[in-house]
């Protein structure tokens, strides 16, 4: 059985936006910041699994409820019932010109099961809104007021609640189609459950499905962030000389930006948002990279090569190539493979081949500060997407890195330094169960949660 919910209210209160948020789709209808965008009645079904559970019916906004309600007060209508009056106004052709939009709504009233009356809390409960409620009440159907724009700083919630209570409308739902909270949606379904006892179980299942979907999305984005950070921390670029050329630096920066772009895309897909919903400024990594001398003991150690192991045995060479391959970009690894392959044939030692071929070269990698910036802005992005309604019109621009609390920085630096040394983790399909990864996941958890 499908229940039909009629979404009504004054123009521009967020009716179409509410539907977009409920179905998680910004393609539905037209949303604009001016009145009269929705001119027709439009319907879309909200599914439980693949079965329609709720039909959401979008309507044009009321424009002149005061005059229409005056028609109800006219002498000839004094002794007709409310429902009869609704029939009469639909038959009265003299009203069509003045109340075109209202009549479209009234036509739907007799067909729906529940009316969701959307209120823009930024507006006081003026007479025109109260007349809209009076007209809707004539249908003798349950009305659920949706207090929209509820996260707007200056709102008239108190006055509205009083007016609604005077009309016996106690079961309202606070909502915000731009700053979205799952708890608000849960409250809406709970209210519907109380009005539709025969649909109780399905609505319960729908709420559960929504919650599980949200948890899964959040968990997946956090994993994507852990992978991004490991990939960024372990990306290194071998340069031709001691000082990287501009081309080498640019190529390195591009590879990091590409990793971040792929992360953003993955998050947008998970949350069913569009590319244009996020417009982060380019990652400020210029001068956030550091150069390493290839034969610095720490550099070699970071690749797992002990400087003590000079014996050119097949095992050491094999392990060396693998470790270097994992630590360097693909192109570099191939070059090294060729170099060492050639060296083997001539019987020269692994270390001396490397030393001869690679001395005077340098390596580019990200500084911990840059990794902290990526960590911080990505965690903020996840928090934002988690609460972004599908009616949001403005692209998310990201947070400035200057807002990172200084208390968070020191221990993150240590963590990222250690991660940079785990080049064997780059581009692996599943993150290992390792203390460093657990610490990283914990940091991600804390950063995302602190913004919820
Ligand atoms: N901040 C905020 N903006 C909203 C909210 N609901 C709708 N809007 C914006 O208000 C404008 C009108 O929304 P729309 O859904 O077209 O209203 P409708 O005419 O009632 O269908 C759009 O610019 C929406 O992005 C809300 O809860 N909070
Ligand atoms: Mg609309």
From TrEMBL:
Residues 6-148 form the G domain. This is GTPase/DUF3482 domain-containing protein. InterPro entries: DUF3482, GTP-bd, P-loop_NTPase. It comes from the Bacteria. Pfam families: DUF3482, MMR_HSR1. SUPFAM superfamilies: P-loop containing nucleoside triphosphate hydrolases.
């Amino acid at each position: 059985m499908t229940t039909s919910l009629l979404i009504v209210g004054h123009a521009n209160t967020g009716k179409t936006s509410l539907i977009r948020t409920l179905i998680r789709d910004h393609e539905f209808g037209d949303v604009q910041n001016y009145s009269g965008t929705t001119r027709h009645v439009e319907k879309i079904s909200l599914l439980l699994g693949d079965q329609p559970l709720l039909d959401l019916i979008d309507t044009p906004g009321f424009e002149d409820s005061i005059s229409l309600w005056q028609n109800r007060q006219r002498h000839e209508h004094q002794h007709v019932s409310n429902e009869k009056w609704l029939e009469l106004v639909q038959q009265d052709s003299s009203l069509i010109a003045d109340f075109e939009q209202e009549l479209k709504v009234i036509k739907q009233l007799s067909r729906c099961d529940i009316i969701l009356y959307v209120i823009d809390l930024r507006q006081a409960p003026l007479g025109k809104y109260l007349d809209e409620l009076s007209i809707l009440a004539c249908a003798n159907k349950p009305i659920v007021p949706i207090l929209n724009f509820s996260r707007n700083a200056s709102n008239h919630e108190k006055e509205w609640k009083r007016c609604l209570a005077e009309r016996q409308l106690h079961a309202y739902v606070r909502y915000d189609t731009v700053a979205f909270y799952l708890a608000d949606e849960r409250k809406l379904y709970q209210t519907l459950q109380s009005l539709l006892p025969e649909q109780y179980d399905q609505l319960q299942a729908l709420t559960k499905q929504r919650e599980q979907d949200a948890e899964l999305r959040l968990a997946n984005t956090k994993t994507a962030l852990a992978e991004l950070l490991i990939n960024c921390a372990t990306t290194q670029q071998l340069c031709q000389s001691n000082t990287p050329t501009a081309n080498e630096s640019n190529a390195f920066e591009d590879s990091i930006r590409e990793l971040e772009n792929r992360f953003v895309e993955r998050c947008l897909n998970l949350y069913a948002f569009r590319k244009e919903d996020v417009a982060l400024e380019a990652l400020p990594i210029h001068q956030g990279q550091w150069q390493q001398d290839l034969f610095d003991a720490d550099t070699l150690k970071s690749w797992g090569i002990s400087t003590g192991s000079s014996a050119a045995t097949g095992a050491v060479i094999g392990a060396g190539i693998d470790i270097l391959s994992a630590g360097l970009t693909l192109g570099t690894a191939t070059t090294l493979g060729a170099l060492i392959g050639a060296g083997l044939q001539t019987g020269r030692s692994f270390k001396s081949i490397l030393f001869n071929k690679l001395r005077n070269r340098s390596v580019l990698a990200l500084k911990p500060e840059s990794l902290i910036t990526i960590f911080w802005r990505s965690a903020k992005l996840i928090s934002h997407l988690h609460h972004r309604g599908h009616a949001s019109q403005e692209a998310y621009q990201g947070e400035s890195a200057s807002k990172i609390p200084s208390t968070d920085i020191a221990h993150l630096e240590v963590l990222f330094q250690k991660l940079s040394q785990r080049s064997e983790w780059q581009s692996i399909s599943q993150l290992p169960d390792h203390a460093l990864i657990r610490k990283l996941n914990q940091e991600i958890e804390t950063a995302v949660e602190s913004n919820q």
